[in-house]
Amino acid sequence: MSKKLFIFSCLVFFSALVQAKNYGADMPKGKAVDIAAASKSLDTYADKSAKFKGRITQVCQKEGCWLIIESNAQAARIKTKDHAFIIPKDSKGEAIVFGELKRVELEPEAAKHLADDAGLAEPVASTELQIIATSISIK
Questions:
Q1: What is d(CA 110, CA 133) in angstroms, rounded to the nearest whole number?
Q2: What is the spatial distance between Cα 114 and Cα 107, in angstroms, rounded to a whole number?
Q3: Residue 84's Cα: distance from chain center in Å?
Q4: Dihedral, CA atoms, 89, 92, 98, 103, nearest 10 degrees?
Q5: Helix H segments across 23-133?
Q6: Are 49 and 99 in contact, with CB atoms under 8 Å apart?
């Protein structure tokens, strides 16, 4: 009996370590689309709310109000809707986000501002995919 209890306790402990951290609104049910697949089928996903996934490559170092996810060299900047929530500046791993995907043309001032937030010397690209997210889940 104690061996079973020990194994059960270990499973509970280790499953808690890999649970996702959730930010913003509750994450809707359903499957997430890989950001690389979504970027290749932008007409299907643009201007519609959906779940997207990718690996975190950057996080806003000023407030934690945005992050960049990437998959197969395709990236999207995730902004929190209305700055309603923030994520930890040291966030890493896989992210699932729920929000609206768009292709955005950045003004030079906006590109410089985003680069400053990321601690980069050069402005970011003038065109990028963005998702305005209401939910972010990080593993």
A1: 19
A2: 11
A3: 15
A4: 80
A5: 35-40, 42-45, 108-118
A6: yes
User: Which two tokens mark 4?
Assistant: 């079973």
In which region does residue 82 sit, left (phi positive, over 0), alpha (psi from -120 to 50) or beta (all else)? left
**Per residue in 93-125, pLDDT tens?**
999 999 999 999 988 888 888 888 888 877 788
Q: For residue 9, how many other CB atoms are within 10 A of its CB?
A: 10
Token pair 């499953």 is found at 15
Cα angle 15, 21, 113; round to 5:
150
pLDDT in tens, 41-50: 999 999 899 9
- What does pTM read for this prediction? 0.81
Residue in the structure block whose two tokens are 């955005």: 104
- Range of lowest pLDDT (17-31, 32-46, 76-90, 124-138): 17-31
* pLDDT at 15 exceeding the cut of 50: no
Q: What is the DSSP string of 23-38?
A: EESPPPSSPPEEHHHH
